[in-house]
Structure formats: structure tokens, C-alpha cells
Amino acid sequence: MIVAQRKKIPEIFNVIQEHKNVLVLGCGTCVTVCLAGGEREVSIISSALRIASRKAGKKIKVNEFTIERQCDNVFIEGAAEEIKKNDAVISLGCGAGVQAIAERYPDIPVYAGLNTAFLGILESRGVWTEKCMQCGECVLSDFGGICPVTRCAKHMLNGPCGGSREDRCEIRADQPCAWQLIYKRLKNINQLHKIAKEHPVKDWSKSIDGGSRTIIREDHRI
Amino acid sequence: MNDKVFEPKIITFCCHFCAYAAADLAGSMRLQYPSGVRIIRTPCTGRLEVEFYMRAFENGADGVLIAGCLEGGCHFIDGNLFAKRRVNSIRTILEESGIEKDRLRMINVSAAGGISLVEKINEMVNTIKELGPNPIRKIIDGSGGEYKEFETLNSR
After folding, report:
1. How far apart are CA B25 and CA B36, in angstroms?
2. When you count CB atoms within 10 A of the terminal residue's CB, does the N or C end of chain A come out lower?
């Protein structure tokens, strides 16, 4: 899922100062699960903005609404009435959500309330970790299901590097060495021979470096 | 309203199993605390949503006090520990919004702690008196900083 973090209240408040009616729009999918932009966070951030607004002597009306998914036009339609009642929208969706709303409503300013961080998983309660950087050419099958592209700081396909110290990465002591994890995992599943395989240079043009990506499925187009 | 007559309005969420019993005991012992302290009984401090604190401040409360069981003594095992973490996280948001974080405080008392509860309430009242009224109660319309009465304030 997409993992995001809320922006600081002064940063959000600064961008809405010129407006009279603002809608804080939550998203019920990934950002709800990572406790950043769901219905509850909408309520907390709206409250904080109302307090900040009154403290600054402004009369900004902050409204709240949450839809199931901000990155899908079908669900965005459900918020149409609420959006039209307001001069601006603070989207608590991920970057995709903010842009989907902005594209759908060209004459209403849409601001981001969250910093979209990464694609990851819930490691334990309150801890999220990055697992995938969407490189566009998945190599997980070769590495026992542990991604060296994302989890190795040097994105090494032929590792480990010389910085691996007692299964820790040299960049941070709390960061496990991805290549140590790969070695242990391949050993456990009797595929240790895979670690000797040489991987050619990665084609980064298939990742974001090749420009923003589009997938077209002709069989599903209408 | 000037500081001499400022009597803080403090919303106090008391856990049914300890702090509320302590407040009851304080009453039986004829202990006094200021009348601006309004007690709301809750089944456990772990039940309290962070929105409750935000709404209280939004609607003009000068302070919010959360009174739970002693650590390790929660009737529901760890409800008060959850509450403690939530209080700490919401103090950051309050500060970002412009409300002093000391206006929100969590205390721990046992059911036998009538005296301790009153002492802690009085400490909170003193802190709020030093901080002054909730800044969002100030009417900023050029009339020169009067404060609306808590009951008549409607922010939404």
C-alpha cells in the first residue's frame, strides 16, 4: 500500500489563508490504513485548522468529507456536491489522489495535506517500511522475494558491497543489509545457487527515470 | 475579562474505575477544587478518541485533563497506556495549531487517591491560570481582546 505522513499544520494553514470555505477531503484506502488521511485524521486536521484559523483571526470555514478512494473518478463523483460548496480542497489522499481531484475540478484549487512517502507494508503496529520502488521490471524471483533495488541503499543487483557489517547496512545501524537477508532467505529455500547469478545493468528507463509511466490494456478499453 | 477573575474551564475526563472514584472520595472527604473543572466520566481513558480533546479546545476549553488509573493498574490492562501515547501525539498537533501543549495533560491516580486527584487538579488549574484563557476565545474584531464566555462559544 501507499504510505504517507501528514504535513505540519502551519504548512497546510499557510496555503489556505486566502480562502473562505475549505474542504478537507479524506481517502478511505491506503492512507486510512497508514493512519494519515482517513476519516479520523480528517477530523483531527480539520479541528487543528479551525483552531489555527481562529487564532490567526481568520474566518475560514473548514468542512470535512471522506470518500472511499480519491484516485478513482467513480468515487470522486461521490464528493462532487461537497467539493462544489467550497473554494478549495485540501486532499488527504496520496499524490495520485490530489492530482485526480485537481484534474477532475480544473477551477478549484486542490492542495496536498500529506507527504506521500513510499510503497510499503505495516511491519508492526505504528511501523511502516518501504518494500517496493516500482522499478517497472521486477527481479524479486531471483532474490528469494527480497528486493535489492529497494532495500539495498546502493540498489545493487550483484551484491553485497563492502559496507555490510554484521548484517547491518553501512548507511544506518538500524538498517539491515538487504544482501544478508537475501543470502539467508535463499539458503532457507535451497536456492543459494541463485546468488551466484550475474545480473546485467538494470534498465532504469522502465522506472520513473524514463518519464511518468502509462499502462494501456487494449482488451479493457472502451 | 482580566486575569484576576479568570477562572479556567477545564474538561476533565475521569476513568470510571479510578479517577472518578477518587473524585467521589474527594467529595466525601469535603476536599475542594475550583468549580471550573468539569468532570466527564468515561469507561476507560483508552476509550477517549483524540478528536474529543481537539473538539474541547475548538469549542473554547482552557484546558483538558485526562485522569486515568496508575500505570499497570488499568482495569482493561493497558487502556491508560494507549491514552498516554495519544495524549503525547495530540500535544504536538495542538502546539502546531497554536494552542500551548501544557493545556492538555494526563494524570494517573488510584481509586483511593482523593487527595492526590485534588492536588493534581489544582496544579493543572494553576498552569492554566499562568497560560491565560484559550487563545481562540479571543474575539479578534478590533474590539480589543475580549473573551467570549465558554458556554456561548460556537465554533462550528
Report:
1. 19
2. C
Residue of A nearest to B58 (CA): A51
Give chain A's end-to-end CA distance (angstroms, integer). 28
Please say which residue of A89, A118, A147 terminates a domain.
A118
**Residues A75 and A102 both lie in one domain:** yes
> What range does the domain containing A160 cover?
133-207
* Cα angle, residue A41 at apex, residues A38 and A45 outer, rounded to 5°: 135
In a domain, B21, yes or no: yes
**Which of B87, B91, B96 has the most A C-beta neighbours within 10 Å, making it the best mutation to test the interface with A?**
B96
What ipTM score was computed for the predicted complex, to two decimals?
0.87
- Please give the single-letter amino acid code of residue B107: I
Domain that holds residue B58: 8-152
Q: What is the pTM of this model?
A: 0.90
Q: Which residues 71-110 in chain B show a CB within 8 A of chain A? A: 90, 93-94, 96-99
Residue A212 lies in a domain: no
Distance (Å) from the C-alpha of residue A132 to the closest C-alpha of chain B?
A: 29
Instruction: Tally the domains of chain B.
Output: 1
Interval A160-212: pLDDT, tens? 999 998 899 999 989 999 999 999 999 999 999 999 999 999 999 999 999 99
